[in-house]
Amino acid sequence: MISFSLQPTTAQTPPAAAATATTRSFLLPYHCAHQLSSSSFPAQQLHSGRRQGYRVRAIDAAQPYDYEAHLVNRFTQSTKLKIAIVGFGNFGQFLAKAFVRQGHIVFAHSRSNYHSIAQSVGAAFFSDLHDLCEQHPDVILICTSIISTESVLRAMPLQRLRRNTLFVDVLSVKEFPKNIFLQLLPNHFDILCTHPMFGPESGKHSWQNLPFVFDKVRIGDEESRVARVETFLDIFKKEGCTMVEMTCAEHDKYAAGSQFITHTMGRILEKLELESTPINTKGYETLLNLVENTASDSFDLYYGLFMYNKNAMEQLERLDLAFEALKKELFGHLHEVLRKQLFGKAEEGGFRRPMLAKLPKNGTPLLPPQSETVANKNN
Ligand code: NAP
């Protein structure tokens, strides 16, 4: 930081300006001082302190009356982003509200017309992608269904964007968008893959302590590009999210064993058409909540979790095996009771209830439950 003042050397120095110069003090960032010295005034003026009626007088300088406002504006602009949400459905609208609340400028585009919804949340809606891109957003946020992402990205007029635009996605699977981005986006675009681990239902009251997963897939070295990513991540930090940096592959592994199982159980329970009763237990209430949380998401979303996460199939098979194993255990007990009734004490000690093994850990090859193998051997 450099601080100095330039004043006319003539006797007609306006008293007000002179007073201001001695009472107000500003610190100029180095580049501003440099700009002044190199463009507004010849070098000698600054070095010799005298020429054409100007000289360096004090370290406290009078600034234009709106100088502070100008600085504040510049600071605000550097922390506010122009975010273009592509895919303005359920989740896109939900995110937009938080972005607007934090003072960012939000543009939206979608297949359907969400003009009035966008207006009501403080965003500007563009039905034409070209028009949206010509706004030169800092961030393009892909918020479309997983299954439509590739076609949406292929249809983007990338040539209308600034060359270092940051692409972010919030898809619930991560390896798939990462690969599509790397494949379709020229090297000069930055890429950040994210997954807020909550939705309009689970995050409707607050995002406090809810996990936000991110992977900085490709970010340019320039300071401004690094800062832009941090500004974007700050939105979620400020809302209280727990920030979790991990690779897209790690995310997909964890998510298949947690999120996909959750959605699958929710959808199975939904098919049972569970109803509230006058004697709900806490556990049952949890199940009803699970149905509410998962059933409000589109089937496209659930299907995307299955189709575009290579770990999902294994989880579905494990669920199948677990259900079969559980039924066998139950029927084994039942069988034992029936045999006791039929044969009484005669068989005591002669019949052994089938011992059911636990499923192998995630990621290990799935074999039929041990009891089946034992039973087959005994046959
Ligand atoms: P979604 O059903 O996964 O996606 C709906 C969005 O996709 C809408 O904007 C829709 O546009 C667009 N879309 C669907 N088919 C399209 C097509 N053929 N061409 C162009 N656009 C198409 O529901 P969502 O809940 O809004 O989720 C959006 C994204 O956020 C998904 O990738 C999801 O995985 C992710 N996400 C969702 C949640 C959540 O809790 N909901 C949480 C985290 C992440 P129109 O509405 O204009 O038709």
TrEMBL record:
Region (Disordered): 355-379
Regions of compositional bias (Polar residues) in chain numbering: 370-379
Keywords from the named record: Oxidoreductase
Domain Prephenate/arogenate dehydrogenase: 81-359
InterPro entries: 6-PGluconate_DH-like_C_sf, NAD(P)-bd_dom_sf, PDH_N, Prephen_DH, TYRAAT1/2, TYRAAT2_C
BP GO annotations: tyrosine biosynthetic process
A GO molecular-function annotation: prephenate dehydrogenase (NAD+) activity
Protein name: Arogenate dehydrogenase 2, chloroplastic
Organism of provenance: Sesamum alatum
